[in-house]
Design a protein that fits this description.
182 residues; alpha+beta; 2 domains; 4-stranded antiparallel sheet; 6 strands; 46% helix
Amino acid sequence: MNLAAIFKKFLSGQETGQLVVKFADAQHLCKISIDNGAAVYITLGTMGPDETLDFIADKQALQANFIEGVPARKKLDISLNERLFAIAGASAAPSPSAQAVQQPSSPSKGGAISAPMVQAAIDDFIDLVGPLGTVMAENVLSGFGYAKGSSMDEKSFSSFLNEIKGEVPSELRQGFLNRHLK
C-alpha cells in the first residue's frame, strides 16, 4: 500500500478525523489524529509520537482507513505532516521485485486499459481479499487520481496492481497478476 498516497489524500486538504493504518510487523494499529488537514498527534499501541514515528519509518503499510469527524483528544504544538511525508517518501521506494511487476509483459492495444478491465481487476481483488478490498482499492486508486468508470494508462494500472498485490493471499497472487497483466 502506498503510504505517500494515503498521506497526500488526508493531509493535503481540510480533512478532520482519525487515520488508522495497519503496518507490517506491528501488533497494534497506528492512529493519526488529523485536524483540518494537519496531523496533530500519532500513536501506536503504548508508544508516544516520537517512538511511533521512529517505529513506522521502515515499515510497510498493509491497510488504512479514515474515520471522518473524530476529534483529536491530544494535540502536539507542531504539525507532523512534514515528518510523515518524509517517512512516506523513504518507504515509498519500490523494491527491485516491485519494479519488475510495474512493466506489463505485453502491451495492450492503444496503451490504455479499458474501464471494464480496470473494474474486473478491482472485482477480482475484492473477491480474493474480502469486503475490505473495496476500501483498499479505492485508497490506492485515489492516489493515482483515478475516476471510477474511466480507462487507465498501462503504467498506472501496473502500479495499481503492484500496490494491491501484497494484500492477495500469497498462493493466489501469481494467478491474480497473470489474469490482469496481459
